[in-house]
Amino acid sequence: MNTQLETLPYRHVLTLPTMGSAVRITRETTEQVLAEWGISRRHPSVDPALLILAELVTNSVRHAAVLSPNVTVIFAGGPDTFAFAVHDRHPYQPPLYDAVIGTGSTGLATVVELTLQIGGTAVVRGDPDGQGKSIWVTLPL
Question: Which domains are assigned to the chain?
Fold first, then answer.
């Protein structure tokens, strides 16, 4: 996590087996976390956040499960920011912005397009050992 995200006062971490049910559980947990943090379900960033998380967790389930028995979702929030990451232990680091120009997967294109449309950022951060990565998304509230 970078210094700006480390200053966000709210945190939640969810670790699940890398299997199909992780997508549903992530969505339900996200809704619960946001409600606990006082963020309305009707806030314009919530639906995009739920879709982005579903796409990222689905990608981990589809592409990383063979090397990553678990997927971890990290949430951080503050009065004007909702950040989250999806982490798995597969070494491949997808080029997020290639997805938008048509050379990547359609799921990642959706992630990047939604993130940019609402003024957010997305970045891939590799694990220090090179054997995993996190895709971090930061959205305005």
Answer: 3-140 (3.30.565.10)
Q: What are 3-21's pLDDT values in tens digits?
A: 476 789 999 999 999 999 9
Give the list of residues 6+ apart from residue 72 with CB closer than 8 angstroms, or none.
13, 14, 15, 16, 85, 86, 87, 88
Quick one: tokens of 61?
Answer: 């389930």
Judge contact between 32 and 53, C-beta under 8 A: no
Q: Work out whether the CA dihedral 66, 49, 5, 32 comes out positive or negative.
A: negative
Nearest Cα neighbor of 72 from 109, 112, 125 is 125
Closest listed residue to residue 121, CA positions, set 96, 90, 93: 96
Work out the pLDDT band at 107, boundaries 50, 70, 90: confident
Residue (of 83, 63, 67) closest to 8 by Cα position: 83
50-76 pLDDT per residue, tens: 999 999 999 999 999 999 999 999 999
